[in-house]
Amino acid sequence: MANQTVLITGASSGIGFELARCFARDGYRLILSARPGGDLEQAAQNIQQEFAGVQTVVIPADLSTHEGPLHLFEETQRQGLQVDVLVNDAGFGEAGLFVETDLQKEMGIVHVNVLALMTLTKLFLREMTTRNAGKILQLGSVVSFLPNPRQAVYAATKAFVLSFSEALQQELKEMKSDVTMTILCPPATETDFFRVANAEDTKVGQSKKATAQEVAEGGYKGLLNGEARVLPTFGAKMNFASSVFFPDSMLATMMNMQMQPESK
């Protein structure tokens, strides 16, 4: 894959960083992006130290703004970088009752998880379909299938990712395009998510979680195989099965219990 280039958002840590390691291992050129002022440069250095000779380009971008996704796309154009694989990993959440949570933070969640993902998909998918080649990995979640009280906005954004991406998968089939789109739906994972979402003290926050590495490995293999959807762990498969067999009202009650403080 020495002539293939992947762009990964949210690449400084967690699943995004582990996905970058997967691509680096197979010789892809890496374009790594995350919010300015974070650990992106350190992440790039770590990958270069682990995988000698890997080519990396670092493009910081604040995807919580209207300009961020456009800046990221335009910077790849300015540098003459053809993106063969797009990984829309960037995302974050917020825990708590909707009437009590911070509106500005939740607007940022919608910008990153929905608007930035939609914008980058639009811009890069157009190029891919013109070339009739390319792959896109969209980061959904098990809550893409489940109503999630106390994470209402986050879960709704992940439901958008699922619906949006499945619709585009059908459009690509109709176009008879060789471009593929894969939706990765991980369960609760050992990343910085629960700290950022103020959910570390919840039952799910204190529970045993999947590792970012096993989630990334599953998503990477599914992407290369052109799979439509990846449920990377047994827990993820069980969450999906629950969404099929139980009514939404029961699922909402079950998920609400998981978002309660561990002491309750």
What are the key terms here?
264 residues; 12% strand; seven-stranded parallel sheet; Rossmann fold; alpha/beta; 9 strands; 10 helices; two-stranded parallel sheet
Characterization of the model:
The protein has 264 residues and is α/β, with parallel strands linked by helices. The protein has one domain (5-258): Rossmann fold (3-Layer(aba) Sandwich). The chain has 10 helices and 9 strands. It has helices at 14-25, 40-50, 67-78, 103-131, 152-174, 193-196, 203-206, 212-224, 234-245, 248-258; strands at residues 5-9, 29-33, 56-58, 85-88, 135-139, 180-184, 189-190, 210-211, 229-230. The strands form 2 sheets. A 7-stranded parallel β-sheet has the order 3-2-1-4-5-6-9, sandwiched between helices. β2 (29-33), α2 and β3 (56-58) form a beta-alpha-beta unit. α3 (67-78) packs parallel to α4 and α4 (103-131) packs parallel to α5 (152-174). The longest helix has 29 residues, at 103-131.
Q: What is the typical, i.e. mean, pLDDT?
A: 94
The largest sheet is: 7 strands, parallel
Report the helical percentage: 40-55%
The CATH C-level class name: Alpha Beta
Supply the number of structural domains: 1
Number of helices: 10
Global morphology: globular
The value of Rg in angstroms is: 18 Å
CATH fold naming: Rossmann fold
User: What's the total number of strands?
Assistant: 9
What is the CATH architecture term? 3-Layer(aba) Sandwich
- Specify the structural class: alpha/beta
Terminal CA distance: 50 Å
Strand order of the largest sheet: 3-2-1-4-5-6-9
H and E string: EHEHEHEHEHEEHHEHEHH
Name the CATH superfamily classification: NAD(P)-binding Rossmann-like Domain
Spans where pLDDT lies below 50 across 5 or more residues: none
Instruction: Report strand %.
Output: 5-15%
Organism: Hymenobacter edaphi
Family: Belongs to the short-chain dehydrogenases/reductases (SDR) family.
InterPro entries: NAD(P)-bd_dom_sf, Sc_DH/Rdtase_CS, SDR_fam
Protein name: Short-chain dehydrogenase
